[in-house]
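ok trying again, last paste got cut off:
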Amino acid sequence: MPSAKSVFLQLDRDLKKAHVRATNKLLKSADSHAKKQVREVYNVKLKTLNKYFAVRKAKLINTTARLTLYRRSIGLLYFGARETSKGVTVRDRKDRGRKLIRSGFIRNMKSGHTNIFTRLGKKRLPIAGKYTVGAADMYVAEGLKVFERTVYADAQKILNQEINFVRGYKK
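nice, full thing came through this time. structure:
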């Protein structure tokens, strides 16, 4: 028969494991709901949006999870760009129409960077890339409220599920 001390130590380990599992599951769920909200407003693909985020999962050693948002701007190329005879059209938001960038063109640079560019003068060079707001700004403007709402609504339910899972309880 196990001693009381070993039972309590096992219970402590199980609760810590359940806390870590619940934290990671909650972060993933809230993040996906927030990104879905961002994508309902902005005309950007999830693959493009994910380039500007980093998730550090919680572990038993460090039980905090972190979602990092990068403030780099997203090139207008990723917003449904179409090259026309007058320039390039893009649709950055789903609630607005397409915008024409006069004398814009899509090019792939030697470095591998592809974007929409416009000339800064009459000459061939210099050219400037066209960008929109950063993914972090989109996330804060549209997705943060959904993120917080999801965390507050689901935290207790997910923690209870994970405790039951770790302890091996059946429904």
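cool. Residues 4-41 form the longest helix (38 residues). The two ends are 27 Å apart (CA to CA).
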